[in-house]
Amino acid sequence: MFHHRQTSERYAVGLYRVSTAEQGQSGLGLEAQQASVRAFVAAQGWTLVAEFSDVASGKDDRRPGFQAALLKCRQLGAVLVAGRLDRITRRAHTLSQLLEDGVSIRAADMPGADDLMMRIYAAMAQKERELISARTKAALAAAKVRGAVLGGDRGYRPAAGPDAAAAALVRRETAERAAHRLVLEVERLYAEGVEGQAAMARALNKRGVPTPQGRGAWTHTTVARVLARTRGA
């Protein structure tokens, strides 16, 4: 089924996944994933040497198709290609570890994303998990405090004053949203051939993309700081 070309060309391994609930229901079923991956690999001029699939949750990193695909990639130095990133794994730390281990990953729905962009997306996914955890802990702590006040005093009390921790969380979430918007814009710029932080800053200003503070103009330093934030620096 696969046509081998010269060894100087890059190899690719396709990986597909659906959960049992998705079968026959998702718009990105196995056949659709396969078609998108094959089209992407062909557009890159790579050689598709193997394809693996799983019917399992993306949180299960032990699934056989996933492990077999990783083994093949390591044996051949091939690129692991999926329809989208969550078809590979839903665990941000797994994706980050794969990239750290030197496994090159691509998603057909992000054709302009290179290894750097994949690292940024992985860092953003991990940060989102941390924010969700922080919000949950803050909500539980607030509920506990409200319960203690209501149970210990039936009299009137004014509304609670500003919560420094909550305010800090809001500021951090705002910064993360700005970073997320920037990553999307940077991906588009990469796809258009724009490289370098200074060139990106000029393009962002031209497109009217707001800075993280919502004022002033983008500079190469501003771009560098936001990209550093997404990489967990």
TrEMBL record:
InterPro entries recorded: DNA_bind_recomb_sf, Resolv_N, Resolvase-like_N_sf, SSR_resolvase
CDD domains the record matches: Ser_Recombinase
Keywords from the UniProt entry: DNA recombination, DNA-binding
Domain Resolvase/invertase-type recombinase catalytic positions: 11-147
Keyword ATP-binding: no
UniProt keyword Acetylation present: no
Record protein name field: Recombinase family protein
